[in-house]
Amino acid sequence: MVQIGNFFFKTRNFLFPIFYIVLFLPFPRITEDYTLIFTIGLIITIIGQLIRMLTIGLVYIIRGGKNRRIYAEGLVTEGLFSHSRNPMYVGNVVMIIGMSILSNSTFAVLVMIPFFIFIYQSIIYAEENFLRNKFGSGFDDYCQKVNRWIPSLKGITKVFKNNNFDIKKVIFKEYNTTFVWMLGATLLSMYNYFWGNFNEIKLNNAIPFIITISCLSLLYIITRTIKKSKR
Q1: Which residues in the chain show pLDDT less than 50?
Q2: In which element (H, E) is residue 203 found?
Q3: Which pTM does this prediction carry?
Q4: Which residues, at least 6 apart from 195, have a Cβ–Cβ distance to it below 8 Å?
Q5: Domains in the chain, please, with CATH?
Q6: More exposed terminus of the chain, fewer Cβ within 10 Å: N or C?
């Protein structure tokens, strides 16, 4: 499992483009009432995004890998990491569930969700193996106190009292992820809106989607420009 996790850790950046492509493939629809399924999927996706934002804004862990290998400078146990050992991955999985539902694709819900849960579980095994070898009993003690997946809400108010939420750090670290899923959600809603009636697409019907995509793209360019300028 550790070897599988190391493989997926190295290739994880290529997995999400594949995931988004699958969402647009013409698999059977879950329901014809897309408004309901879109709302449910959007709410779940936003919850996942909020988990990621809270994790980064309170205490962000520096463990993005080094030379495409698992790496950690220190054992972080503060912030949301005091309630779940993998809050970022929890947020990712919740977002994948939300986007799969929002896509209205039976294949995404039945296949892609379990597949990505397996991917993250294997990555976690690989990371835990690395952390246990590096930090020894300190990591074992941490594992005994904090769940791997399911967050514990006990004492969660202390986390917000004892840590300052850095909104600027959240914006600069999450703008790309936020743009990608919001753009994907817009395109998926457009895809489902015209499902089965692609020959009847008219400019008037597409205007709301075009405006949304334009606004998202503008915000992305502005944020990226400010970040790159280091102002």
Answers
A1: none
A2: helix 203-229
A3: 0.90
A4: 29, 34, 104
A5: 2-163 (1.20.120)
A6: C
